[in-house]
Amino acid sequence: MATTTLVNLLTNSSSNRVDDDQNRPSRMLPITDSISTIHAFISKWDPHSALSSRLLHATTHLHSYLLHLAASPARSSRNELMRTNSLLQSAMNCLDQELRNHLAAISDVHTLTETISTVRSIVETMLSTGYGEECLITYQSIRRSAVTSQLNQLGFDPYTNRTRKLRKLKWELLDNRIQSWIDASQKAVRSVFFHERQLSDKIFGASAQSVRDSVFATIVSDIAGNFFSFPELVCKHVKRVPERLFRLLDMYESLSDLIPDIESVFESEPVSSVRTKVMSSLTKLSVSIQTILYEFERSIQKDTTKTQTAPGGQVLALTRYVMNYLLSLSDYEAPLRVILADVPQESGASSIQSFDSDDRYGSPVSVRISWLLLVLLRKLESKAEKYHDVALSYLFLVNNVHYMVKKVDNSTLKESLGDEWVAVHMTKVRRYMEGHVRSGWAHLSATLPVKEEETVERVREFEMVFQKVVKEREGWVIVDPVLRNEVRLLVESMLVPAYRGWYQVYRGKMEVRFAPEDVRNHVFGLYEVSRSGSVSGSGSGSGSGKLLRRFGCYLPQQGDMSVRFQIEGAKALPGEFSLRYPITYDLQQHHELSLRHQIQNFD
Fold first, then answer.
1. How far apart are CA 128 and CA 18, in angstroms?
2. 476-532 residue pLDDT tens
3. Which residues contact 124 (CB under 8 A, 6 or more apart)?
4. Number of CB atoms found within 10 A of residue 471's CB
5. φ, ψ (nearest 5 deg) of residue 212
6. Domain ranges across the chain
7. How far is CA 370 from CA 14, 20, 510, in A?
8. pTM of the model
């Protein structure tokens, strides 16, 4: 609301009280006394001395006398009118400075009651004597500066966080701005804006509620609007890549938690634009978050890393990244429940929800996580087909799907997915184990001699094949020690009893290279994870190490050498993202680890 319009409201609000003063001359000092009081105040004015209430009464009296002179038809009153008006102007100049000094001493609504009471008296005097515009200009100027200063002290500068400024910032600097905004948001609403509202109500308490609301609006509307538009500006300039999701969720969660307080502080019509700005920022955040989740899904589906398979069937970097990403995502159940509630689900996600008649997933968040896990499973199955050895394909699925199951079973993801999801996918792991043993070892048992005349040839064939298989599989691993032992026992039960039976019959008739214990020992020497924890291969995993921590989980940053989202020319449509992973790690390095390494190894 314009200052002039607000002055008219204030004048109307105080006019009745002025008229009452004029109708009660018996309660006033003689005009000569009022003039003397004002002259004495002006001649000896000291901004550090206490302001006398007698001066304020004298100023009001002088204004009433001025109105009386203005209404008098006597020609002699003209000169008196000019002198009285000049004296009143001088008094107002001093009161204006007094107002500035006392307003500067107010840090917040909890400032000494005496100071606030003095400010209120000065304001009422200036309003009632026709100096409402000057009073409001001074009040607004001082209080706007105070509110801006308080936000600066909280770490948010309303004037540097504008579109033109943000557009030029690198992500690291923008990330710091976002964190400063999150840290400041609660105090800004519950302390700065709330106390400013209380202060306006106290100082302009003699005016109507509509006036108090309007005064508050002229001070904070622009500042608060700028503050609450920050998330919207971030959404406008931030790249839609998965690593940005958690910062946007932090802002959405912080802002949505403050909605009851915002509606209380900015409940009046003059500040309705602030509420509108808040809802606009929440909407923009919601849309950006939905877009990034969609891009995250596409980045899994369109993963075109040169390393399509993991050496020895180990857990893929993609698997670690996606599972840790979803684990962090599950920490935002409350805001995501709202954000995803009205989002149309993909056909696959919809079928998950409709198939599940007992509603075990429970919420849109659970449905989305389940769908993303299914997308990852399909991607793993397609990558398993890249192995030339079927047994190694099965081993790859054993390691990766078991990693997924373990991650769900030992985290908050289990609350979303339930015991049944864990059981169903653990059954898959065991089927993959059986497939590995069957496709990788059954042919060995078939080479054992059946007929006596085939003994020598079959024994040599077994020894040759067994030695070749053991050598080829020295680099194969089973990450989980329990599964590793189970597979070894399955292989042992397939080979050793039959071999021992044959061995006991024929060992005296011919030279045999392996005793049953040798076969068993070779089998139990397989599938071991390297102690160094390194994965051999080509490529580099060094990175800048810019870290984003969320509940202890490090997430990669745009620009890190170990994770890049980029257009793949002919392999990707414009705007599509492709995941890039490092091949080589060294867990013994003491320098800062790459971000991709951090998230993959957060177990």
1. 6
2. 999 999 999 999 999 999 999 988 988 888 777 778 889 999 999 999 999 998 754
3. 14, 206
4. 10
5. -60, -40
6. 1-11+36-154
7. 65, 74, 59
8. 0.77
